[in-house]
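Tutorial handout. Part one gives the primary structure; part two gives the three-dimensional structure as C-alpha cells.
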Amino acid sequence: MATSAVARETVFALRRQIAKIEGTLPERLQAPAGAAPVDAPRNPTADVTPKNITPKNLTIVRRGLAVAPPDAFVRTGAEGLDTALGGGLPKAALSEIHGAATRDAGAVAGFALSLVSLILKQGPRLPVLWIGTAEIFREAGFPYARGLHRLFGIEPEQLLFSEAPRLVDALWTAEEAARMTALAAVILEIRGSPQRLDLTATRRLHARAQSAGRPVFLLRQAGEPEPTAAPVRFVLSAAPSAPRQTIAGPLAGSIGRPAFTISIGKSRTALPGQFTLEWNPDERSFEERRERRQEPAANPVPVVSASRRGKDPAPASGAVLAFAAVGSPAAGDQPSPGERAAHRRPRRAG
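Part two.
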C-alpha cells in the first residue's frame, strides 16, 4: 500500500515537472475536503481530517476545470465565447489569431485591436508594441490613427511599431518586449508558416508572457495551423455587417458594426466552435450575433391549387418563329370580323 502511494506521488511529481517545462502548469485549485497536501509525502497512518489541512500550496491537476482569479482572463463580453473558453481569453499567455488568406489581414488586425481595447479598459493605459517585418507592413499596411481612437479608444501615441528587417530580428524583439511590464500587450505579426516560428520559439514567447503577466498576440497571415505553445488559437475572417439600426428599424443599404467570424481552432479547455461577433465601438465590447429563426408561414396551405390535366389538353406547340412567313398566315390564325378577302387584294393603279 505504501509502495503504491510513493509510486503515485512520483508520477504526479514528474507530471508537474513536465508541465512546468512546457509552460502548461494549471492554476492552483482548492483541494477537496479530506485530501492531503500534494507537495507533502503521504503517511497512511497519519490523521488526514480537514482540520489538519492547510489550504495554501495545494495544487490539483484538472484539465479543463482550472479555477483562476477574475483578472486572469480578457473577457470579450460575448457570453457564448467566454463560456466556451472557460472564462475568457488568458491574459498572461500567448494567443494565436489566424487569417486563412491575406485578404483577412484587416479583420485579424481589427480583432487584435479590439482585444487591446478591452485590456486597456480593464487596467492602466500603457503603450502597446506592434512588431512585424517590412513585408508585413508593406502587404497589410498600418492602422489608421483616427480609426484607432474612434473604434477602439486607443490614442495614436499609445500604439508603437517596430519594423524588423528579418524574421529572426522580429522574434528577438518580441521576446524582449514580452518580458516588459511597461507594455499593456505585445503584438507579433507573421506572414505564412516560417520555419523559425517553431514550437521552441512559441514556448519562449509564452513563458515570457506568463512571467510578465502580459498578453502576447501572434497574428498569422495565411499561415497553416502548426504545433505551438499557445493555449488558444483563433481562426478568424470578416463577417458581413448587419444594417445600421434606427428607431424605425434597419436602415436599408447601410453598413453597421464590424463583425468577425471566429472559430476556436485549438484550446486546452474548450471544444471547437464557431461564433459571429460584432464589435460595439461605443461600449468597447463584443456582442454575439444570433441568427434569427424564420417564422413559419401563417397559412402553409397554397392559395392556388396545383393545375390538373383536363379532358382536352392543349396541343403541342409547333415551330416558333420571330415573324410569320410572307403571304401565309400562321396556323390557327383567324381573320378579324372586319377583314375580308377583298382587303387582301392588290390595290388598283390610279
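Part three, for discussion. The chain has seven helices and 13 strands. The helical segments are 2-22, 79-84, 105-122, 134-140, 145-152, 167-178, 199-212.
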